[in-house]
Amino acid sequence: MQNSELAQRGLVLMGCGKMGSAMLEGWLARGLPSSSVWISDPNPSDWVKAQGTHLNAPLPPDPAVVIVAVKPQKMVEALPALRALGNGDTLFVSVAAGTTIATLEAALGERSPIVRAMPNTPAAIGQGITAIVGNAHVSGAQMDAAEALLSAVGDVVRLETEAQIDAVTGVSGSGPAYVFHLIECMAAAAEAEGLSPELALQLARATVAGAGALAVRTGEDPAQLRRNVTSPNGTTQAGLDVLMDTDTGLPPLIRRTVAAASARSRELARG
Ligand SMILES: NC(=O)C1=CN([C@@H]2O[C@H](COP(=O)(O)OP(=O)(O)OC[C@H]3O[C@@H](n4cnc5c(N)ncnc54)[C@H](O)[C@@H]3O)[C@@H](O)[C@H]2O)C=CC1
Ligand SMILES: O=C(O)[C@@H]1CCC=N1
After folding, report:
1. Is the pLDDT of residue 218 over 70?
2. ipTM of model
3. Which residue, by CA, sits nearest to atom 1 of ligand 1?
4. What kind of fold does domain 3-164 have according to CATH?
5. Quick one: which atom of ligand 2 is closest to the CA of 97?
6. Strand partners of residue 11
7. How far apart are CA 165 and CA 132, in angstroms?
8. CA dihedral defined by 215, 216, 221, 227, rounded to 10 degrees?
9. Could you give the count of Cα atoms lying within 13 Å of 65 in the half-sphere of its Cβ?
10. What is the CB < 6 Å shell around ligand 2?
11. Residue 154 pairs with which residues in a beta bridge?
12. Sheet containing strand 54-55, strands side by side
């Protein structure tokens, strides 16, 4: 499926909040005409309203792709409106956490091609990472199309099994929130050491952003990058002795954090 097929048959976006808008911004920037996009959302933002799409208009009869980006709790209410498009060659892509392919098949039709995806919010600036997995009805070309569509907002990885998506959700889907909280914690600690709130936040934000960019651009093992900062018996070593403590430091805390988010993903899947 080429962009031209999307442009011709149309793309439907069901739910256009934070995640839907992030993806829409990427597609429009990549040249998808706004006249080829149909958005269903009872509460669209001013930005969504200004994009020139078909907003809350009757859906096209045979769209190339339908993206489902409503909250998992809204699925039961939202999916019936899409059922008429099921069991054909319209490809459904759901980004909802914890909504299984089986649930989507039951609502949309057992023969519907369905891709389950887990993106993250850095998609808003084209730096997301999305994991995808499809059901048996997704053709190779449709999987390629889903990958192409989602690569408009960052990297895409294909999963071997649907079960992997719970761990993905716990790491990269929810992960930006962990990193934002790290910024908050570093800023609070800097304040506690006597810096002003503004300076503390500036230092924390730039440090996390710069370290992240360095890790990506160099492709270096993060452990080596860490060692590069750490002078023998210096300040970093003193800090890392606390942070890397295997009982009270970051390793067990992050392990529990990701486990809790992954467990919640599995719990949502059970309904
Ligand atoms: N925010 C995030 O970091 C990520 C979110 N997701 C998934 O994306 C989905 C959407 O999440 P967000 O964009 O954060 O939520 P959001 O609340 O910002 O957006 C959801 C949108 O759906 C709309 N909506 C509600 N009922 C609807 C209906 N019946 N039909 C059509 N639209 C309806 C709402 O008005 C809202 O604009 C969720 O399923 C979430 O699991 C996945 C990965 C990351
Ligand atoms: O918190 C959530 O449930 C969604 C899924 C991943 C990120 N946000």
Report:
1. yes
2. 0.98
3. 19
4. Rossmann fold (3.40.50)
5. 5
6. 37, 65
7. 8
8. -10
9. 32
10. 97, 169, 173-174
11. 128
12. 54-55, 37-40, 11-14, 65-68, 91-94, 114-118, 128-134, 154-158
